[in-house]
Predict the structure.
Amino acid sequence: MWLPELLKPCNDSPMMNDSRTTSTGGGFLRALLREGPKMASFAVVGALNGVVNYAITVGMTFLVLVPLGLATSDTALGFAKFLGWVVAVSNSYVLNSLTTFAAESGRRLSLATYGRFVASGVLGLAVEVASFLLAVRYLPLGLAAIVPIGMSFVVNFGMTRLIVFPSKPAVPEDRA
């Protein structure tokens, strides 16, 4: 798992006036470099699913709710938004399982993993809403709307990496 690596270098790094010339720890930078490609892939999948969420929400509103005269109903609009989120989260699970976390998932989909993915998404959504409500008190709306994107990305990636698709321990080779 990468979290212990992240915390490890504090004691392994050379100190000022220390006679050690090499470091065995990789620290935060090494972990960031190692996880960087996964973070980038996760971000691309997330951006794509932001478009999916938007398209479903707006499409449902214009193609279904407006013709039915329900475009001003909070319940109907809430349902359209919920449907957009569910489709986007489901699509995100499939894409991340098959690409970003292919090694960890074995490119297999499971109901248990999907449940953990949705739960981590709900936590990310809660962080997004809470950080927006806090940011909007101190920043102009345009900036306050950006803060939750970063906050929820960190939470979503962290939860997905640590809980949904944790690294599999290395299996020692059989020396028979």
